[in-house]
Structure formats: structure tokens, C-alpha cells
Amino acid sequence: MADEVVSEFLAEAAELLDGLERDLVAVDGGNLDPSDVVAGTFRAFHTLKGTSGFLGFDKLGGVAHAGEDLLCAIRESAVGWNREVTDVLLEVLDALRAILAEAARTEKDGDNAYPALVERLKALAEPRPKDACPAGEEAGTAAAAPASPEPSPAPVFSPRAPAPTLVRPAKAAPPPPVAVVPEPAAAVADKAAPRAGGEPHADAGDGATTLRVPVSVLDRLMSLVGELVLARNQLLCQEATREDARLAVTSQRIHQLTTGLQESVMKARMQPIDNVFSRLPRVARDTAQVCGKQVRLLTSGQETELDKTLLEAIKDPLTHVVRNAVDHGVERPEARLASGKPAEGTVTIRAFHDGGQVIVEVEDDGAGVNLAKVRAKAITLGLVTAEEAERLSERETVDLVFRPGFSTADSVTQISGRGVGMDVVRTNVERIGGSVEMISTAGRGSICRIRVPLTLLIVPALIVASKGERYAVPQASLVELVRVPPEREAQMVVDVHGSLVLRLRGAILPLMDLAKVLSTGSASRAGDGALSVVVLSAEGHQFGLLVDEVADTEEIVVKPLGRQLQALGAFSGATVRGDGRVALVLEVAGIARRAGLLSGADSRAGPGVEAVRGGATRPYLILRGRDDGRLAIPLSDVARIEEIAPDRVEQVGGAEAIQYRGAVLPLVRVANALLERRKRGRVPALESSEKLQVVVQQWAGREVGLVVESIVDVAEEDVAIDPTRARPGVAGCAVIQGRITEVLDTAALLAAQMEPSKEAQRA
Amino acid sequence: MPEAIRICTFLLEGKTFALPVAEVREVVKDLEVTPVPLAPPAVLGLAHLRGQIATAVDLRRRLDMPARAEGEPSVNVVVQSAEGLVCLAVDDVGDVIDVLPDVMERPPDTLRPSVRELVRGICKLEDELVLLLDTDRAVDPSN
Fold this sequence. Notes:
Chain A has 763 residues and is an alpha+beta fold.
């Protein structure tokens, strides 16, 4: 009985303190007027004091009492609210939390009565102690007057440097004289509005309609529902093999009830992400203060709900990411002003739903990730060699920050940069089936995007078959299913220099064979010879996965794999299917990574899958020209790419051609065609015993082969062609993959080349 | 009087091995195993055990022994370990016996290093020597 009272008190006290912290930080940021929170804070301390007296928690009562006295003095206008009041009250919250934590462990409130803190509270509560208190008091009072959100000039604060001894130095270091400029009132307007007029947090839940349930009960309930879903799947599977109408009706009923139960239990476990977001303003404030930065924090989507377990799991990673954004992302005020930005940096935190996932983005408007610095650091740390670093794409370089032991800060700060950081963030997020990526724009800031599933246990999945085994693909990563009939295969599936791409409604997607990625063979065709492609998206990229067969969709209960198998990175778990067999759950991003897909320089992350498909981006085939220059051909012009032995080339009427698919394929040497145009008549001899790379394309109703030096890559970019650099056969210059590339106008090039040869044929 | 350890013995290539009974959950005969592509060779795959999923590890491969011949029977010793639930495929199971710590010795240095690192100790019984395996190491298929 006593235990229950204590644990209920602890839970309630924790909620009260969280609410108070939100309010205090909002006051600090100028988003709430102190007068709005005085009464609520007073009441909260009063409640804590009362209950702790009843439970015999004297230390807790003592600290709460001192806090209450200070607020009482403020309420009676004997003392003004200033920054020091906010600081000390936040310290009181920390002290109370520490005592509560102690009480949760030992059911006693410990030995620390926080005498120094209590003394400080008492000193502050003294009405107008001009002689006793440093001179900053009045200035501080003025600064906190509601009408002037702008702080008083910094030097006024300096006399306070020899502040009273602090109880918990880590959190309560005296504010650096210049850096403590509070955030202006404009910030977090959307957050402040409901809170300012909202009910005080001291109000407990409505006893008549809500009930506090231990999380362990919900966990148990959820795992039972998981088992039930599994048993239901087995029942449906067995029912299908029997012709029993009554059994069918009953099993349908159980099916519906299970689904309903599952939804309800999942709903019971959902919590708004605000429970985590509400901690962040304090985190940002403390970090900014320690680092000497000026930062305001904007949040949106705090009503987004996700599973309680997942919420807990992203709490620490998110806190770290916010710290990181303030510490490493946002520049110092001087540097910001120098680069034409406002001195105050903005960190924006957004949460939203996206196809069965919750996405949390932390964006800063700082300098972005310094690529050169990251590379240099990674080399110093031995994470990559100098040559490897050279070859890394921008995206791969940014990704280095997630490597264990990586830290870019010039100096190790108190807040972050201790070498445990982003790698832990990634590990923790991936452990719950999520992913983290960093997108950085030099000089403009960076975005850290965390994706987490809505819920862990039961997910809808597509079952696919490959080499006799079934695999589950989470629906969350599924975009569409594509069947490639044999007659359209040549058109839709293109082999680009050994790697397959899928052409789908004008878009081009990398295509990989699941069996090849898993080293179990290669994909088989369906009975009618068609290929089955599952289009998936991971980390903002789309790609096709070639499987033997697409089976069915199913609700699966994901079970974790052992550590060793998890480490393979290809499977996120396993599930028991209706027939009792185990199926592996594919980790889509891991599969793509294994196929070398999520690392290319061309595969830029967009805000969503639409960007890949967007009209602006077009895929180009990148070629190396004769003098090492780069050439590009729009991939939409390319039908196929072939490698042919030079001895297959025959001379037909003064032109080169090969026998190809039962017809004559005229060949045009691109390098010669361009060279001929540039330096008329001076065609160098063709010296090559190597295989020829031939890009086959349609021209004037027939197929023509363009012989190119070598094929480098396929790039998909929003390309702006500069027509002033055009020359015959070249539409102009463009920057593709960060390099100047000539974009060929193959139609014009062929027209110039083919006409004379046609005449030669006729002659 | 030191407390006796209860061990469960099993056979691999005619040799006797054992695991502490406290870590053995059950012994199962036939198991349908789903192979896991890309997994280390000692991993046979995943098996379904009444609603739970266990990793099946071939202890012969784990101990660098020659593979079992086609159709040769095997039995699975199911253990709860740091790796989660693991089925260890062995040739046959023996008895559950109590051994006193004083019959346990350090594994001989002549043991192959790959085997030695999995062995917790060697028990001298009247008629045979039993190698007591370290559960967490035995189930770790990484090497």
C-alpha cells in the first residue's frame, strides 16, 4: 500500500517538474511572462512540500519549501523575477529530481538537503537586499520586465561572476558574461500560445476517466497480442485448407477481434512526442549557455504520436542530436554576424508521420558539416586512409560523423565532442528499427533526420520469395510492385556497365537482385517469364529489388535476431509465419547498403521519394571522353549498353557496323565525331584491342551504336545545361556530380555522322 | 563442501562434451530450420520453438569438426544465452550428472586453440573425460 502511494507520488512529481521546466525555459526565452507562471510554480512547490511532508521526505520538503518562499516573495512583488531566479529555480528542479530519483531507488529521500541551494533561495527571497546582494539585481529585474524582451547590456551581469558556491557545478556553472543573452520573444510562438493560457501542470489527470497503468502491464499486453496475432495467422492458414463453413466463420470473427484488440492496445501505448520535445528547450538553453552560443529552438508536430517504448528509445539520441546542433552546428555569434546571418542561431525540431514511420528532423542554420575537416579528422583517427577519403562522396563524408569515436569539435567541450556521440545515436536508433542520416549544406546548416517505426512489434509486411525461402519486407519501405513481362524487359531493364537499372515511367531506379545480394544465386522468373520487382525506398532513395515471386501481405510479429545475425545488417528480425516456418525480415536500408547503393555521390537524399521522381532531375549516363573530359548522355536516349569485341566490327561501305540481334548496327565513334568537328579532317587512327563500349540508341527509326571510351556512372541530378558552351553534337555544359560535363546532343551528332555514311552506302 | 555442478552431457564425433544444466532449456529432436544467407558457416539458420525464434548453431562446425554425414541424426540442445535463444546441434545427448568442482581442471594446453577457448574446464569422470563448454562462447558463431 505504502509503495503504491510512493510510486504514485513519484510519477506525479516527475510530471509536475517536467511542466515547471517547460514553463521556466519558456520564460527564459521570453515566450512566457513570468507573471503567468508564478502562481503555477508556487502551487507545484506547495503540493510537493505538502505530500513529501506526509510521506516523510524531509529533504524534498525542505528544498520545495525554500522554492515556495521565493515564489511567494515574487508573488507579493517583494522581489522581481530575473534571470538568476530562473537559473536558481531550474537548479531547484534538478535538486528535486535527484532527491526523487533517490527516493525511487531507496524509498528514502537521501542525506543531501542541498543547504547551499536553500541558502541561495533564501537570499533571493529577501526583499530588496541592496547591500547584501551584488549590484546586478536591479538591472536583472529591469531586464525581466515583461515589456522588454531584449536583455540589458551584458556588462551589467559581470559583477555577479563570483556567484555563490554552486551545488551541482555541471549544470549550474555561472552564466558566461556575454553568452547569456536570452532568446527573443518571437520564438516558439506556436508552443507558447496554448501553454500561456493553458491549465497549470499541477492538475492531475481526471480521476473519473483516466487511469495510471504501469508500463510493464502494457508491455505484457502487447506481447500477448503479438502471440495472438501469430496464432491467428496460423489459424487462418489451417482454416484455408479445410472446407468447413462454421470454422471459417469463427476464424474470421477471431481475425477481426484480434485486429481490433491489436489496434486498441497499440493506441493505449501511443504517446505524443511532446513528452520528449518538452525536455529539449532546456537542453538547448543549457548547451547554448555553456558554449557561448545564441540559439532559439522552434518545434513543430509535437502532437505526433508514437509507441511509448520507441519514445523512450529516441529520448537520448534526440537530446544528443539537439546538443550537437547547438554545439557543433550553430556558429558563435561573431562568426554568424561575419557571414551575414543573425547572431542568434535557429534550431528547428520537426516531427511528422510518413508512411508508417515517424520522422524527427533537427535542423540548424549553422555552417553545415565542414567536409574537409571531417575527412582530415577521419584520416587522423585512422577511420579511413587518405586515398579512401579522396574517393568519398559528399554524402559518405558526412556519414563519417556516425563512425564510432568520431568527433569534429576543435576542442572537447563539456557538452559534446567526447567521442561518444553520433555513433551511439545511430546504434540506438537502428536498434529500434529506425535510421539516422545527416544532410548538410555548406554555409547553410545541416539536418539530422531520424526515422523510427510507429510501433515495434507488429508490422504489416509484404512476403516475397527468393530461392525457395520467404522474406518479409516491411510495408513502410514499400513503394510499389512492378511486373516486367518478357516483351518489355529490354525496354525496362537496362544493364548499365554491369549494374542493372529499372526504367519506370520516365524515372530510373537502381535495380538489385535479392538473391545476389544475399549470395544465394540469382533471381528466377515467374512461369510466364516475367520478372518481379519490388520498388522500395530507404533513406530517401528508391530502388528496385528483383525477387522470384511476390506472395502476400501479412501482419507479422517481428522477433529480434541474435546479436551476431543482427550484425549482418541485412535483416532486422525474423517472424514466424502461418505455416510455422520462420521468415527473415529484410532490413531495406541494410540490403541497399550491402549492394553498395546508399553511398553513391549521385544518390542524394531528398526530403521524400518525390524528389527522385521530380521533373527536375534527369538521369544521365556519364562517359569518359578521349582526353579524360566527361561526357553525358540523357539516359532516356539509351536503349541498351553493350560490350563488343573489336574483331566483330566490320566495314560496311566506308562505315563501321556490327551484326547485332540479326540486323546491322551502324557504329559511330563518339570521340572521332567530336574531334572531327573540332579539328576538321584530322582523325587519329583507332588503336584498341580492348572491348568496345557501345551505347545503343534509337535514331531515325532504327538502332545505332555509339562507341564510347568508357562508361563511368549513372547520375541523377537536376542538371542545368549551359548552352553557351554548345558545339556541334554537344548541347552544352553542365555540372554533374560536381564536375563539368559536356552533355551530348546525340540526335544532332548522329545526324551529322550518319547522313554521309548513308550516301556512301547508296553509292 | 563445495557445491556440485549439474551438467548435461552430449556427444560430438564420439567425444563427450557438456553444458551446465542451468543454462539448458530443453532438448529437441526434429527442428525445421530456415537458412540465414550471409551468416557465419556455423549458423544453420533459424528455428521456431513454440512462438519463439532460436538461432540454430552447428556445434560440430563451431568446434572445427568434420561435418555430419548426410542423413546422420542430430539432436538440438536449446540454451538461453547472451545471443538469445540458441539451438546447438549435437550428435546425441547423454546424461545429466553432478560433478564436484574438484574433479574439474583447466583445459589442457594441448587442446586446439579454437576449441580451447570454448572450454570452461575438463571433468575427469571414472571412465571418461568430459569437456565442459562455456555456453556464451559456444553459441557465438562469429569465428
